[in-house]
Amino acid sequence: GETFLIRQAVASNFEDALSGEMTLSFTVKMKDLPSFSSESVLRYSGQYFRISSFVRSISNGEYLISVEAEHELFVLSDKSLDLEKFKFSGSASDALALILSGTGMAGYIENDVQVEFNKVGTVTRRSLLKELVSLCSGELEYEGHDIKIVNHRGASSRYDILAAHPTADLTDSMVDGDE
Question: Is the pTM of this model over 0.70?
Answer without folding.
Answer: yes
